[in-house]
C-alpha cells in the first residue's frame, strides 16, 4: 500500500463505493452503469439517465412556475367518459393560516379524558 499514491487509493475507493451504490440502488439504469460492461453501454445508460433527469427537472419546473402564478391547478381529461363512471369529486381546502398542533393532538386529549374519568371514578 505504501507504493500506491494516496490519490489512487481515493479513486479506487470512490469507484468501489459508486459500484456498490449502483448495485443496490432502485434507480433504473444505475445497475447497468456500475456493472462491468462495455464503455458504449455505460455511456448510453449515462446519457439516457441524464436526459431523463433533465426532462423531469424541466417538467417539475414548469408545474412549479404554473403553481406560483395560480396555486390552484386544474387538469382536464381529454377523453370522453361516461357520467356514471365519474366519482364524486373530493375537495381539499388547505388554509393559509397555521393551526395549533396541541388542539389536534388526539392521543393527548384521549389520555387526558381517560385520566379525568379515572380520577372521578376513584
Automatic annotation (TrEMBL):
Pfam families: ASC. It is found in: Membrane. Its main location: membrane. It comes from the Eukaryota. Signal peptide: none annotated. The keyword Transport applies. InterPro entries: ENaC (IPR001873). It is a multi-pass membrane protein. GO terms for molecular function: sodium channel activity. Keywords: Ion channel, Ion transport, Membrane, Sodium, Sodium channel, Sodium transport, Transmembrane, Transmembrane helix, Transport. This is Uncharacterized protein. The lineage of its organism: Eukaryota, Metazoa, Ecdysozoa, Arthropoda, Hexapoda.
Amino acid at each position: 500500500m505504501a507504493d500506491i499514491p494516496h490519490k489512487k487509493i481515493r479513486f479506487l475507493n470512490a469507484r468501489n463505493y459508486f459500484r456498490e451504490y449502483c448495485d443496490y440502488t432502485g434507480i433504473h439504469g444505475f445497475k447497468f452503469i456500475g456493472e462491468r460492461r462495455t464503455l458504449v453501454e455505460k455511456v448510453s445508460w449515462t446519457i439516457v439517465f441524464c436526459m431523463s433527469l433533465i426532462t423531469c427537472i424541466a417538467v417539475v419546473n414548469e408545474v412549479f412556475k404554473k403553481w406560483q402564478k395560480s396555486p390552484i391547478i386544474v387538469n382536464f381529461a381529454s377523453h370522453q367518459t361516461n357520467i356514471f363512471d365519474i366519482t364524486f369529486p373530493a375537495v381539499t381546502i388547505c388554509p393559509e393560516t397555521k393551526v395549533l398542533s396541541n388542539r389536534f393532538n388526539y392521543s393527548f386529549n384521549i389520555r387526558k379524558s381517560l385520566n379525568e374519568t379515572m380520577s372521578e371514578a376513584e
